[in-house]
Amino acid sequence: MTFDPVLPPAVLAAVAAVLVALRALSLRPAAAAGRRALLRWTGMTVALVLLLVAAARPGVPIAQADAPTSSRGGANIFFVVDRSEDSAVDDFGGRPRMAGIRDDIDALIDAHPGARFAVISFASRPAVDWPLSSDAWSLRPVVEALNPYPGAAADQVNAAAAATVLRYQMISAGQQYPGADNLVYYFGSGAPQSTVPQGEFDVDAVDGGDVFGYAADGAGDQRLREIADQLGVPFVDRRPGEAVPTGTQAAASAPVANPAGERRDEFYWLLTVVASALLLVEIALSVRDLRRARSTAREVRT
Does the pTM exceed 0.85? Predict the structure, then answer.
């Protein structure tokens, strides 16, 4: 079994230590309150332990024969997605630009088996829609649900709004997966109608990727080319029906012998399901206790 924690191990260990200390402090009052209180304490403690273990993301590597053999297989891949109203324009072969973006992301996931993926969205501000993870199966529904933000006005878009978030995500990835390639794929229209100041991407160690432009009129292509230069990757003018490039600038390095790059069957979802069930039981019991306390208080007043 291997682990791929969502937080640096030191941070996860510190959180675990604090929770263990808090649960230990509450043990004596629970034991003094009787058997039922002790059972509830045990249920809550088990739920917290399960969530901590789930955060460590345990899993079993898939057989080596199915594992990727190139350095790209263990790459960190960052999808930077424009979710402003520009992405809702229906000029991508009669479909919204966002439909083309979703199709291209799906194709890129297929083209990089065993890689880790992150999704960073932006309009006027950035957001991490999917933290870096090798769980491509769970990522698919997230990609299918990508749509333009409601009310994200095109004149307020910062085409480089995700620059700082991307930079820190890449720094974190470099610490967790040293030696792995970092690929950046940017999907957008270049914010051609924007009236706000535009930022710049200032990131290091981009080993490959592309900047994809989806506007049929090419109004924002110049800004997209500037972003491509800042990232050090090619600009690609996307057109319906064309095969999606898969990172022509990716580093041709030797395979990275990194267990974290292996394809794995992960079990965090099962742990979180059990923990959720225990937490729901505790919530139901707490609601029941609250109702009884209110009923008793009303009887005392009357």
Answer: no
